[in-house]
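User: Teach me something about this protein's shape.
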Amino acid sequence: MVKSEIVNSTAGKHNNRSYWGEVFYRLKKNKMAMISLFILVVLIGLCVFVPMFSHYSIETTDTLNGDQGPSSEHILGTDKIGRDMFVRLFYGGRISLGIALAVVALECFIGIILGSIAGFYGGIADAVIMRISEIFMSFPYVMFCITVVAVFGNSVGILIFVLAIISWPNIARIVRGQILTLREMEYMEACEALGISDFRRIFKHLLPNVLAYVIVYATLGMAEVILAETSLSFLGLGVSPPKPTWGNMIQEARNILIIQQKWWYWIPPGICIFLSVICFNLLGDGMRDAIDPKMKK
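Assistant: First, the predicted structure itself:
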């Protein structure tokens, strides 16, 4: 009898949670997702605070101590003109993670707006937006980036624009598919009967129900953008030196001598890229499982 009361009490507490409370409860039970979140918080914290409190800057040079290996003075050694690699590593992380965040935010903004219009209104609007998205999805990725960079230069803003404009069709299709289903629900018929404007119906009653899918997409998209920025920087199409990113720091490894003898040039940024990408993917998987109602026990 006592055991039954305890079980019922526990079930009652679970049922009293809000939707997001239940999502976070299930997420906390996913150990890999929580470990990934902790690693990301630590990594982001290092990227924010190390350049702030270090007595070296990314522009401080010391040619007499160039190409020095790790030491007590320079934790990750120096590059060929004596710049501290430890500070450059985490300053580069600021730029790489900042680019990823900006790209995901911009592509989600574009994709949510266009996907909402396509899903809600259907008809010609849906056909036009979906055909435009197919055109963008058909662009050869690398060739498009090369063309834009050749015309406008390879600044941070251009890189963000290129990556976002190529990626927005993915989230637009997700939002459109969800809204196509939600707009047929009874509560939307009630909204129409009450004379609620299309704007309020989309942004107040439909999009909040799509937000969970957007969060999962954004988490997984962060990993994709980090890899994309790394690839473009390695090809010389990303952020131009001397401003560091994880991608253009690894670009130094194209020299076989550096690969063999100067591991501090490329292994630390490689580890940061690996950790950030795998942690964002694991966190995204955890968010997807926590949000999916089929995973509820």
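Now, about its shape. The two ends are 23 Å apart (CA to CA). Residues 85-121 form the longest helix (37 residues). If you'd like, I can walk through any region in more detail.
User: That's plenty for now, thanks!
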